[in-house]
Amino acid sequence: MSRHDLTIAVTGLNATDNPGPGVAVLRSIRHEPRFTGQLIGLAYDTLDPGLYSEELGLAASFLIPYPSQGVDALRERIRYVHSKFPIDVIIPTLDSELPSFIALEEELRSLGIGMYLPTREQFELRSKVRLAELGQKAGIEVPASQVISDARELYTVHERVSYPFMLKGIFYGAHHVASLDEALGSFHATVAKWGVPVIAQKFHAGEEYDVVAVGDGLGGLVGAVPMKKMFLTDKGKGWAGVAVNDPNLIEMTRKFMAATRWRGPCEVEVMRTPEGRYFLIEVNPRFPAWVYLAAGAGQNLPYATVQLAAGQAPTPLPDFKAGTMFVRISLDQIRSMSTFQELASTGELLAG
Amino acid sequence: MQRLKDLAVSESGFLFDPYTGLTFSLNQTGRFILEKLRDGLSEPAIRQALESGYQTGPGDDPLRDVREFMQQLRESGLLPAEERS
Asked: Quick check: A323 and B20 CB within 8 A?
């Protein structure tokens, strides 16, 4: 097997209207001319659309246990997959599974499986709850915020975070609120779904930009591509976007990398106000679903991550081409019932 | 000025700002003024070029056209405030 014949497993094949990043990561690796290895899909549901994609050319796919089933179940399943297809690299792509993969990193490394993930400390530092601390550490402007665990705190929250503000769930979801009544309603809806705490974050009107980036774990930036969303779904997900070249966005990303010594992929979300101020509003600890744009624009960040995870020095990335666009599409994939049947009955699907 | 030079403008007048990702459509006059601005011409020089380059009617005001267009560029962040004169 040559140096580049790697077997790479990727999670997050739920390419729905709120897509996981797995399909985009797999497409990016496939897009890399130097890649000659094989790809494995790891999915949570038998109907995750990426499992049925012929374009991805998956050698095999395996269902894996949901994060709620714990680290032991995941360890056992990865060991099983590894016994059938010796894996060189795993790229986890979902927020909810990252703590489990981070916990297993050393153990998997001893099996010969590489990952390129943030440490537990880095993962926690970028959480919404600690955004103010991160901003201070990195010298980055962040919106005023307050962590709220009890609805009674909403009666005085305006003393620190004035209306309007965003009320955000600890993992997911955000509501724009302009009054106490709206804040109370959103608080209860968010807590019912995601638990406490919630975060009140001052709303700054402006244009949102997102940067996909990879950190080298030493404070440096492997590569970064900023994007402006051009079209949003009703869930606020970007359905079309364009690569932009605002040096302020790259600089903010560099500061984040330097302050945290971030290791691996991330998505930096930034709000640019009409006055030209840049606020860091969130950092997601994994690739975004639009990461294929980065590969299309010239910086194949998923492949660079594969190289890093495999212990190779990443090939220096060229400048990306601003103006490169993505426009997402929904397609119906036609398969026979036997594909679904095999996945449902055995939890795995082998090519051919 | 660098922001203006970085703009991508197609022959049909479609303008892409690689800095912000915003797009605009320019008419023929807008394209003419933008081209002269990128060449570094002053406001009066552009007006003069507009008058000699285009047939103007009695109701036309090339200076107003130039000023309005430059104001739109400033509002879009493509011309800095300090270049106002």
From this structure: no
**A230 and B19 in contact by Cβ < 8 A?**
no
Tokens for A306, please give them: 């594969």
Output the six-digit token pair for A230.
């051009």
φ/ψ (deg, to 5) at A75: -55, -45
Chain B partners of A322 at a C-beta cutoff of 8 Å?
Answer: 18
Q: What distance in Å separates the CA atoms of residue A249 and residue A241, rounded to the nearest whole number?
A: 16
pTM beyond cutoff 0.90: yes
Q: Which residues in chain A touch residue B20, judged by CB atoms under 8 angstroms apart?
A: 207, 228, 244, 246, 272
Does the pLDDT at position A352 exceed 80?
A: no
A230 and B21 in contact by Cβ < 8 A? yes
Instruction: Scan residues 22-81 of B and list those with Cβ closer than 8 Å to A.
Output: 22, 77
ipTM for this model: 0.81
Helices (H), chain A: 22-31, 71-84, 98-110, 120-125, 131-138, 180-194, 247-260, 292-296, 301-309, 337-346
Max Cα-Cα span within chain B: 39
CB-based contact (8 Å) between B18 and chain A?
Answer: yes
| Among candidate residues A157, A185, A184, A186, the one with its CA nearest the CA of residue A174 | A186
Q: Cα(A145)–Cα(A203) distance, rounded to whole angstroms?
A: 10
- Considering only the beta carbons, identify the residue of B18, B22, B77 that sits closest to A322: B18
Structure tokens at A15: 């390419």
pLDDT range class, residue A1, cuts 50, 70, 90: very low
Could you read off the pLDDT of A89-118 as tens digits, one per residue? 999 999 999 999 999 999 999 999 999 999
What is the band of B64 on the pLDDT scale with cuts at 50, 70, 90?
confident
